Amino acid sequence: MYLSPLQLSSNSQILMSGDVVVHEGAAIAPGAILQAEPGSRISIAAGACIGMGVILHAREGTLEIAAGVILGAGVLVVGAGTIGENACIGAATTLINPCIDQMQIMPAGSLMGDTSRQVTPEATAAAPTAAPTSPETPEATTPPVDQPIEPIEPPQPAQTPPQTAPETAPDPPESTAAEPPQPGETPTILYGQAHINRLLGTLFPHRQAFNRSEENGQTLSGGSG
Question: Measured between alpha carbons, how far is 40 from 44 in angstroms, rounded to an integer?
Answer without folding.
Answer: 14
